[in-house]
Amino acid sequence: MKKPSKNKLSYWFDNQMSAGTIALIKLLSIITVASVLIIGVLIALIGIGKGYGLGQGIWISLTHVLDPGTICADEGAGILFILGMLVITFLGILIMSTLTGIICNAIDEKVQDLRKGRSVVVEEGHVIVLGTGDGLYTIVSELIEANANQEKEALVILDNKDGKDVMDEKISARFPDTKTTRVICRCGNVADITDLRVCSFDTCRSVIINTDSDAMTLKSILAVTMLLKEYGNDNAYIIAVIRDEDNRQAAEIAGEGHVEIISFHDVMSRIIAHTSRNAGLSQVFTEIFDADGSEFYIEEHPQAVGKTLSELNRYFPVSTVLGFVRPDGEILLNPEPDRRAGQGDRLILFAEDDGESKMDAEMAPVREDTIQKEYRREPIAKKDMLILGYSSRLKYILEEEDHYVAPGSVMTVALDLNQGMHREELEAMRFENIKIEIRTCDICRRSDLEPLLGKGTTVLVLADAEEEMDERETERKDARILMTLLQLRYLSDTLGYRLNVTSEMLRVENQELAQIARVNDFVISSNITSLIVTQISQTRELKNIFEELLQEEGSEIYVRPAGAYVKTGQKTDFYTACEAAARQREVLIGYRKEDPQTGNIEIVTNPPKAKELSFGEQDAFIVIAVD
């Protein structure tokens, strides 16, 4: 059955109206031109009015379409002329009002589209952050600080949790001054290739994936890898945190060489284990990983060729040389004492900022009379610890502790009342040097905590973080940790115990609330990993350096008595202290001073080497050492 022509016309008109702004403007333009030509031809052919020619008729018709007021000048013309101009004038009003509406709607749609964050980013050398998970503000803060000495830098953030307006408001409220960094927010799915294209992966420098789950992280790695290969951007790379170690290999396969994976549980377990053994060490890790203060840089210094690590540290007055990066990319952190810098080697520096490390013309002298003639290495001792609460990282923490304590060390794990289901898991664990004792109690109740404490007890308070945990649950868990810490503070003051307390905290904002509890160290999981990720996004080679520092093999960070290196009670300079550590194949990066009366701890990293200092028996050096 043949469809009526009326339906066809209506169908055609509907299609034109729904075709978009450009199509509507084209349709109006065709109607306008046709109307002007028809009226202009009629004026010329019929000979009405004043007998205008074809060109004059078209011009008069056009002016009446564009300006309705033109009809006032037609007074005195023939009735047919006036009627024709009246028709074309009404048609012009209809056309121009419709065109105005279309243009206004088009502008409004564009504004709304921009507010939705769908426009393409046109930047070069920018960092892209996919996801607004925990640690976003730390990443933004660190990138702003890292870019402060650059002229123009850009940071692009993409997620679909909030609208662009909300994202912009949150960033502006938290960072009113972004210095030299422009923070650009876009909305989209972090694993959707179409949405990701707005971020300009063809010109980016690096990509940080900051999602709440391993599943979304893996999907994002696949999508980003595909885009980097499509655009041929071989210089860009991806940095991602994986929470489940079983997913690490899958993530590396998905990245096809473009990705650097940080194992969340592995990194956090090692940092927590190291920190619990050495008061104040979390400040050292934070100092190393963040962009405020001293951090790691890899720089070329041709005048360093032929000099050993020990000699080089006597040439740099405000920086510490930690090792070399060979031309083939091999990392030599704290190398053998006789290893000299070769042609093409770059230096691994611990410095305030990139480009600020300058070599003096002469090597600084050392004070031989203040260096200990015999190096006193403390033997491995038994180490008992009270662990309050359960975390999915507990197994890794215990494995790490087992490597550094003497046989017979006891780890007392006090499970909270709702964590009894983990008892069997803990009872099944077997270690070489440590023994596990399990208690079940309310870790927020003072009467339950008191029997577990003793003089000098080392306490570790864990936070049980879960994937995709909402803000309310995070705050609830941090609130219980705060209650536990305050109870420990009360018991410490009442019983006269000096406790060495290390605590996890889920949110960095809550760390400030807990300062009154006098905790030696805070470890904020999302904060530490975000610091590491941000550093690697600036220099990819730092990944290998950080991994070595956090692994059992190779060089690690230790806190050792200052009296093992220099004579206590005598003034010396840091050049001499660095030389004393170098003679034991160790690199000195700072010191810890402890007030013998109050127990307050001061951590100083990378001090000026010419500064004179005096160390007591309770003070310690922070060194990078093989063992």
Give the arrangement of secondary structure elements.
Elements: H1 5-17, H2 21-46, H3 54-66, H4 79-115, E1 127-130, H5 136-146, E2 153-159, H6 164-174, E3 181-187, H7 193-196, E4 206-209, H8 214-231, E5 237-242, H9 248-255, E6 259-263, H10 264-277, H11 281-289, E7 295-299, H12 309-312, E8 320-325, E9 331-333, E10 346-351, E11 385-388, H13 394-402, E12 409-415, H14 423-427, E13 434-440, H15 446-449, E14 458-461, H16 471-495, E15 500-505, H17 509-513, E16 521-524, H18 525-538, H19 542-549, E17 556-561, E18 571-573, H20 574-582, E19 586-594, E20 601-605, E21 612-614, E22 620-625
Task: Tell me about this structure.
It is elongated and about 120 Å long. Among the domains are: 99 residues, Helix Hairpins; 131 residues, Rossmann fold; 140 residues, 3-Layer(aba) Sandwich (Rossmann fold). Helix content is 39%, strand content 19%. The mean pLDDT is 85. The chain is built from 20 helices and 22 strands. 39% of the residues are buried.
Summarize the structure.
The chain has 20 helices and 22 strands.
Indicate the CATH class of the domain at 385-524: Alpha Beta
Computed over alpha carbons, the radius of gyration is 35 Å
The total of beta strands comes to 22
| CATH fold label of the domain at 385-524 | Rossmann fold
Termini separation (Å)? 91 Å
Given helix and strand content, the structural type is alpha/beta
Strand order of the largest sheet: 3-2-1-4-5-6
Q: Roughly what fraction of the amino acids lie in strands?
A: 15-25%
Query: Main β-sheet: number of strands, strand sense, barrel status?
Result: 6 strands, parallel
CATH architecture field of the domain at 385-524: 3-Layer(aba) Sandwich
